[in-house]
Specification:
By secondary structure, the protein is of the alpha+beta class. The chain is built from 4 helices and 7 strands. Among the domains are: 73 residues; 95 residues, 2-Layer Sandwich (Heat Shock Protein 90).
Length: 246
């Protein structure tokens, strides 16, 4: 019913029938009316909130199902990637071993003498092939990373030999860019305990980066310093654009 301001009010009515005592005729009801508008509005809001919550819960369940499906797909994709990388790494080793083997035979001049230039080329091929083999081994490490089976085999190595191998791998690129690598050379006194393959890879990455950001006519080099009685630090430097101080 409307109130004086024409606002709709909801009234809860309770009553009992009333009869005329003389004739027994029904005359109406006697009872009370309670304004339950606020209670009704509260219940209405509660029902709407409940509907929203039920809708949200349904949506959340659907999202969870979608996430479960996505997780299963991601796991399947990860397994497929791992299998692919593992198989490809093993497949790539076969031709690489052939390249390494033939280059070693050529370096040893097993079938006749070679002039100095060709001998130098075969040494570079041999070094690059070994570097690529180490990259493939790193891929296999990545395949096994979940099981923490990364292989690191430190041993006593002459750092000068590793630097020379890394230099031979990047020499062609440096020559094409007219960059001087004569300073990529260190004394043979530095003997360190390290994994030779991984150390060579670090050096190749640093040298490639230095060459990339050095203009033609520039130079790249390596400095070595004993930081304490047990540690050696080497620095790859270049005459390129440098890195901002900040």
């Amino acid at each position: 019913m409307p109130d004086k301001r024409r606002r709709i009010r909801r009234i809860s009515m309770t009553g009992v029938p009333v009869f005329d005592e003389s004739f027994g005729r029904f005359t109406g009801y006697r009872g009370t009316g309670t304004d339950v508008t606020r209670q009704y509005e509260i219940e209405l809001r509660a029902r709407k909130i409940q509907e929203v919550l039920e809708s949200s819960l349904t949506e959340l369940r659907e999202r969870n199902l979608e996430l479960d499906r996505a997780l299963q797909e991601a796991r399947s994709a990860a397994r497929a990637k791992t299998d692919f990388l593992g198989k490809m790494s093993h497949e790539l080793r076969t031709p690489l071993n052939a390249i390494i083997g033939f280059s070693e035979m050529s370096i040893q001049q097993a079938f006749g003498s070679l002039n100095a230039r060709y001998l130098s080329y075969f040494r570079d091929i041999h070094g690059a092939a070994y570097h690529l083999l180490n990259i493939i081994n790193d891929i296999l490490d990545a395949v096994n990373i979940d099981s923490s089976k990364i292989s690191v085999e430190p041993r006593a190595i002459c750092l000068s030999d590793v630097v020379a191998q890394a230099k031979s791998i990047v020499a062609v690129r440096a020559e094409q860019n007219e960059i001087d690598l004569s300073a990529v050379d260190i004394s043979r006194e530095w003997v360190v305990l390290a994994d030779p393959g991984r150390t060579r890879k670090i050096l190749v990455n640093l040298l490639n980066n230095a060459i990339k950001f050095t203009n033609a006519g520039g130079s790249v080099g390596i400095d070595v310093l004993a930081t304490d009685a047990a540690t050696v630090a080497f620095t790859v430097w270049d005459t390129g654009i440098g890195i901002p101080d900040d």
